[in-house]
Amino acid sequence: MDLQIIGNLNLMLAQGGQGGAVLWLPLILIFAIFYFLLIMPQQRRQKKWRAMLEALKTGDRVTTSGGLRGTIIALRDDTIHLRVPPDNLRIEVLRSSVVSVAGSEEQGKS
């Protein structure tokens, strides 16, 4: 009689272990979907943005997150100096505020 109870207990534990794995499968699938649809593209975008900031050089025409458009006239460690038309106003902004590069001033003239 005791052996039959132990056998039934082992059978229930074995079935419960398989059921637990089946319960985790949807959670793992949801995480994988979020990773491929949200996390991975954001990491790629961040990598491209960092590479763009590292490639900035004097003469590039840039747009800042505040909407200012200007030409880089000086680069510092974490700031850049922009010349903003029409009065050739010189301003200093954080390098991280640059959102896009339009190209260099020499390329625009040719």
Short characterization:
Helix content is 53%, strand content 28%.
Question: Can you give a write-up of this model?
Answer:
The chain is α+β, with helices and mostly antiparallel strands and 110 residues long. It has two domains: 1-55; 56-109, SH3 type barrels (Roll). The chain has two helices and five strands. The chain has a five-stranded antiparallel beta sheet. The chain starts with a helix and ends with a helix. The mean pLDDT is 84.
SSE string, helices as H and strands as E: HEEEEEH
Give the overall shape: rod-shaped
What kind of sheet is the major sheet?
5 strands, antiparallel
Structural class estimated from helices and strands: alpha+beta
* Record field, number of beta strands: 5
Question: Number of domains in the coordinates?
Answer: 2
In DSSP terms (H or I, runs of 4 or more residues), the helix count works out at: 2
Helix content: 40-55%
Unreliable segments of 5+ consecutive residues: none
Average residue-wise pLDDT: 84
Distance between the termini: 95 Å
- Provide the gyration radius in Å: 29 Å
Strand order of the largest sheet: 4-3-2-1-5
Share of β-strand residues: 25-35%
For the structure shown, list the relevant keywords.
rod-shaped; five-stranded antiparallel β-sheet; SH3 type barrels; 110 residues; single chain; 2 helices; alpha+beta; 5 strands; 28% strand; 2 domains
Tell me the layout of helices and strands.
Elements: H1 2-54, E1 60-64, E2 69-75, E3 79-84, E4 89-94, E5 98-104, H2 105-109
Antiparallel strand pairs: 1-2, 1-5, 2-3, 3-4
